[in-house]
Design brief:
3 strands; GMP Synthetase, Chain A, domain 3; 3-stranded mixed β-sheet; alpha+beta; about 130 residues
């Protein structure tokens, strides 16, 4: 089973049983604020925020307030591929305590419908 971290399950490499994606800094005080900032960014083709779509794979926060976000897109040919990481950075940078934000696009594992949160499934009429 492959589900996104925001559903509480990590992506695992079937051959090595190692996580494909490093864990997020969920215990950091800024984590929930960053998640909420990510929820303000919407995929222009799907009326759901990118966090609940499962596009945010990792949020790493160091002790100085430097943020690293790994995200993907619903498809590599997404028309806003060049813009969406900037939208995420622009949403997170103004938060108090954030020093820098680096958003990287990653393609492994590829995004799939199973990565949708329950909120996204409900909003899209899947449940």
């Amino acid at each position: 089973m492959v589900l996104s971290e925001n559903q509480g399950i990590m992506f695992m490499n079937v051959q090595t049983a190692e996580p494909i994606i490093a864990p997020s800094s969920t215990d950091h005080p800024l984590y929930e604020q960053i998640v909420e900032a990510c929820r303000t960014v919407h995929d222009p083709e799907i009326p759901v925020n990118i966090y609940d779509l499962g596009l945010i794979y990792r949020i790493a926060i160091d002790g100085e307030g430097n943020i690293e976000i790994d995200m993907t897109l619903t498809a590599p040919g997404c028309p806003v591929a060049g813009e969406m990481p900037g939208w995420v950075a622009d949403a997170v940078e103004p938060l108090p305590g954030v020093k820098t934000v680096n958003v990287e696009l990653v393609w492994d594992p590829p995004w799939g419908m199973e990565m949708l949160s329950d909120e996204a499934r409900l909003e899209l009429g899947f449940i």
